[in-house]
Every structure is written in C-alpha cells, then in structure tokens.
Amino acid sequence: MTIAFDAPGTRSAVEEGAAFTPRFDAQGLISCIAVDAADGQVLMLAHMNAESLARTLETGEAWYWSRSRGELWHKGATSGQIQRVVEMRVDCDQDAVLIRVAVGGDGGCCHTGRRACFYRSVARDAASGQVRLGPPTS
User: Fold this and answer.
1) Cα–Cα distances in Å, from 91 out to 10, 49, 96?
2) Which residues constitute the domain of residue 128?
3) CA 122 – CA 20 distance, rounded (Å)
4) What would the pLDDT profile of 85-126 be if each residue is shown by its tens digit?
5) Of 86, 94, 93, 108, nearest to 48 (Cα)?
6) Any domain includes 39
7) What per-residue confidence (pLDDT) applies to 48?
8) What is the mean pLDDT of residues 64-88?
C-alpha cells in the first residue's frame, strides 16, 4: 500500500483536524527531529520528502532525504544504526515532524561517530562579544 498525502486544508483543519497533511517546503521537504525514545535526547535533525515520509510510515524505520547526495537515505542501512520509529508527532502547522526512535547498533546517530549530532554549545563571550562553539561532548 502506497501512502499519499493530501494537500493541507484550511488553517483550522491543519491545526485542529484529524487529517495528516504535511506541509512540504518549496523544495518538497519537511524537517524531522529524531529523539531517543528511551531518554528524550535530541539525536539529529534531517529532512524528509513525501517518499521518505511515506516509507517511514510504511516500514516503521526512519527514511530521510539526503540534500547533499540528492537521494533517499535509510538511516542505519550501512552503519547498523537503524532508527525504529516508536512514535511520530507533527507540529501545530504540520511543517515539521518529530520521531521518537529506538536506535540499533551502537546507538550512535551522527556521522562523526557521536551518539547525537548536537554535541557543541554556542555561547557569546560577554567581554569580547565573540560567538564561539563550546568543546565537543561525546
């Protein structure tokens, strides 16, 4: 069964209705935040197109659209870090999704080898005014 998405309706229908009508951007993408289902840590941000979103819903595993490679990306297909979707949520205006996932393999998600992609803080030095990145965490 192939999943197709209807066009968003009225603002009220999008925000309060029961129909899942994702609002893809001009490039046909929707942002997706992946969160560890066990502890709530934000693991990564990626993008989905209609095909990868449909595959995610059909298979129960995370599929994304790789903007840099211009192709579908089954997360963990080569690394073993398959993301099994435990729950999917959509924000109020249906232009972003959040998936709670159980991660296979070593539990990492970042291509740098870290567990999560958000491993550095951003801070502004009060004295100099410079904005710098904090040291990486594991």
Assistant:
1) 16, 16, 6
2) 11-105+116-133
3) 35
4) 999 999 999 999 999 999 998 878 888 889 999 999 999 999
5) 94
6) yes
7) 98
8) 94
